[in-house]
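Protein modeling request. Please complete all fields; requests missing the sequence field cannot be processed.
Requester role: graduate student
Desired output: 3D structure, token encoding
Chains: 1
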Amino acid sequence: MTRRFRLSALLFPFLLILAVLLPANSPAQSYSRVEIGAQGTSLLLSDPVSGKDERGGFGTRITYNFSPILSLDAEGDFLPSKSPTEPQRGGRAFAVLAGPKAGWRFKKVGLFVEARPGIINFSSAQSITTGIAPNGIPFITIYPGAHRTDLALDLGAVFEVNPSRRTTFRLDFGEMLVRYKEHFYPVPTTPSTIDVSGVVGESLMVSAGISYRLGELTESRPSFSGVRRWEAGGQFGLLSMGRADIVGLPYFDPFSLGDDPSFGGRLTYNFNPWLAVDTAVNYYYHNPHFGDAQRGGKILQGAFGPKAGLRTQHAGFFVKARPGFLSYGGVHDNWFPPYPTTRLTHFAVDVGGVLEFYPSRQVVLRLDLGHTLGFYGPRTVITPITPITPNGVLRSGGFRDNGMQFMTGFGWRF
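Delivered output (414 residues):
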């Protein structure tokens, strides 16, 4: 994966400039409650399992502005060009995304960031049918035409230009994460299966379009509430990320996707209403009961880093960039009975968006939409002597893996 797709890493400094420099001298901003528009879209899909898939299309959007700086943004895009049929995707595509957008409006331009979950549907992926024919002969049939619908998450930036009070030209640059599900098909008369690897892929999404403001136009100066220094709370969520998968000794597959639930705690220190240091520790209590050279067992995750954004009296939207770790409790050192395991900790980074609601001055409700990157170093595992491992060792190479993380939580401000 080339570096140009890691756009989520650029969102934090972008919003940090907006959050720190602009509120000190906030001008009145013109906006309406509802905007509708249309856009042309380019999507370059890419992941470690399938080839690159570049598409063009068109779509519509609707935006509801809660205030001059915070909105709910939704769009649907149809990508009519047909791509080759593959196990995870193929044919035409249709995507729907909806989520918060926050930023700053000047007289003629606007700068925003957005974090929008959604789905993407492919019209003609591969479908595999297995079974035993009436004559008793096993068969495996692979044919196109299967619909695949996968979870998506768009993390990006928005640039707007207003040639008039009612119209807006808009340009979006985003990193779209797509969670491709695993699929398993039994092989007749054998205990084996045909496996289609699951993975979280990074993609580049760019769109350009025009919007029209409906209803009454309002000139409003954004109002910002004060903030208490400390926040502490709990959270619950789900991480979709690669999981250890042993297909057969001594083969290790880094592209096995798992969905692991977690609970944890969070502590935040607010320097001001727009900039904070955010700390979270999550425990993933699901145990897959197998491991490989880098992953396995229950997971402990820590993330510690800055959070920057825009906060009004009742809601706020922030971008986070938090380095940390993923610590696995069931990693294999060797492959001999009783198959001993150890704990292994890897460097990780959590970037994404945070949406907060403030029902009172003390209480905060929070939704995290994140991209988790795990960096797994190479390791050597002792194995039985086989034709593949004549020296009794297996060198497992290092790799980087993507995860899609969703967290909900609450906190107390003091």
